[in-house]
Amino acid sequence: MIEILNEQNLPSLPWEDRPAGDSRPAWRYSRNPVIRRDLLPTSNSIFNSAVVSFRGGFAGVFRCDDTSRKMQLHTGFS
What we know:
Layout: E1 43-54, E2 57-66, E3 71-77
Antiparallel strand pairs: 1-2, 2-3
C-alpha cells in the first residue's frame, strides 16, 4: 500500500484521471509524446523521465540519444 504524506493540489501540473476501465497503477498522458524524439537535429530519441514542480515552474531530467546512439542526461527548467 502507498501512503501519500502532505498531499497538496498542484493546479499547474497537468493531470488526467485514469481512463475508464484501466486498472494500471500509472497511465500515459493522452497528449504524449510531449517532446518529439527528433526535436533536435542530432537527436534520435528524447525521454522525459522525471518532471517536478520547482520554484513556480517545472524542472525535468531528460535523456537524449543522438543519431549514433550516444546517451546524455540533460536538465530543463520552465
